[in-house]
Input
Amino acid sequence: MLTINSGDPLSDLRESNAPNRDNLIKQRIDIMRLDDPWYERYFSWLGGAAKCLIGQCDLGLDRQGRAVNDLVITAAGSTLRLVVLATVFAIVIGVVLGIVTAIRQYSGFD
Output
């Protein structure tokens, strides 16, 4: 399903005017294993993802050849900051609204 929805992983190279475009396309096909059927790539990725349970994640490479593990770790830091900020904000708003409804019992706030 992800293979179908992900678009063409070679589209940027096909539109490139680089003199070594064909070599770059072949290199990306080798790196991303685009010659293999989708189910082989999926089960290979699933095996690497399952290794996360023992601390040896291998989520593969992105289109530029960067390790997806590093990208996830970078994004996790930003996500964690956002979750903490949203939680603090929700607690503050909840406590303030709780105090207002306790003070204004039997009114429109209650």
The longest helix spans residues 68-103.
